[in-house]
Amino acid sequence: MKTEKKKQIRVLIADDEVEFTETLGTRLKLRGFETNTVSSGIAALKAIEEVPPDVLVLDLKMPDLNGLEVLAKVKENFPAIEVIILTGHGSFEAGKEGMEQGAFDYIMKPVDLSQLIGKIEEAYLKGKAA
């Protein structure tokens, strides 16, 4: 009997903290996710056009486009992509604002990997159900 291979969830991580982004990408790959990492909002939008992810993990504070600007463009052009916002700097209000603009959820930095994986899987299932 042929068993169907489980589809890998495609995750794009956009954060200007390059070391954090690469480490998170590696840790997710080790857990079976297909990951791509970028370090700016503009690079995130380009990467999405090339290979749309299932889930975008998006930092709020980036030097070119901030996370809310990227979120608005993603939801306008790729509404099926679920977005999880990463926020540090005690920015509860900005995370809440992101959810009002269509983000799936937000997570405060430092990121708990188990919590993030759970959110990614929930966002993926929501996106597939839509």
Question: Could you give a quick summary of the protein structure above?
Answer:
The chain has 130 residues and is α/β, with parallel strands linked by helices. It is built from 5 helices and 5 strands, in the order E-H-E-H-E-H-E-H-E-H. The protein is 46% helix and 19% strand.
Q: Could you explain the architecture of this structure?
A:
The protein has a five-stranded parallel β-sheet with strand order 2-1-3-4-5, with helices on both faces. Helices cover 46% and strands 19% of the residues. It contains five helices and five strands. With 130 residues, it is an alpha/beta fold.
Give the neighbour order of strands across the main sheet. 2-1-3-4-5
Q: Tell me the span between the first and last alpha carbons.
A: 31 Å
Give the total of beta strands.
5
Our count of helices gives 5
Q: Proportion of β residues?
A: 15-25%
Mean pLDDT: 90
Q: What is the global morphology?
A: globular
Structural class: alpha/beta
Helix content: 40-55%
Largest sheet: 5 strands, parallel
H-E order:
EHEHEHEHEH
**Radius of gyration based on Cα positions:** 14 Å
Low-confidence stretches: 1-5
Features:
single chain; 130 residues; alpha/beta; five-stranded parallel sheet; 5 helices; 5 strands; 46% helix; disordered N terminus
